[in-house]
Structure prediction request, 271 residues.
Amino acid sequence: MADLGRVAPRWAYASLAAASAHTAIANRGARLLALVASLVALAIQYELWSYVYGRRAAIGALDWPAMQTYLLVAFVANSLLAPSTEAMLLAAVREGNIAHLLVRPVDPMAAALASAVGAAGFELVAAIGGAILGAALVFDVVPPGGLAAAAFSASLALAFLVKFLLSYLTVVIALRTLHVQGLVWTRTAVFNLLSGALVPVAVMPEALRAVVEALPFRDVIATPIELFLGQRAGLDAALALGRQAAWVLALTALARWAWQRNVGRLEIQGG
Prediction:
């Protein structure tokens, strides 16, 4: 006779994603407060750029409506990976709890990705809600066409993976040090500058733009926005998506290599 009270076991990674989603919902107050802080930063950017555009009609290929769209879509794209996900992994390194992950019968990178995916749903819904509110009250948004919207959706999924892998690499590097906060600040500063989160890549100085084009950071923010605005279409859009996919593969290989190199040098803290 079947045991009707027994629940069939779920795939381990699905369970991790579900647990992360439940945690995000349970801690929604803190996460919504972080979202409000991001909206305040967005409002400051809006005011700064509105002042700049009050003195000129366009900057590069971006007129004022396109820049407003850029700011709002950048806000959504930047909300894809919750800072709390990276903070949780870094705290595990700092406090020594990373040892529990090492003895679990799961792949560490896949487990971290499952947790990030679980929290991403809540973060994305909240960010889109904030973006819709901003568009309704303040921003003059340029909507994408059908193909641009499809390309943007695919690009946003790849952007999430690129951002996750950059964050995961930060955690892996942290295995070698007792001082992780400085590492996080450095990674955040570099990401904000080189991804296009603060200044569009198209209006950067030529020398800096050359550096940006050689690194994966732009594929988290700038590439999805360019597809949203229709600045990349046809073959150019396909190449942009291919570049993102190539960075996902390259960063995955780099993260796995770095994990094997660094996990043996782990410095356990907190007892």
Notes: The two ends are 48 Å apart (CA to CA).
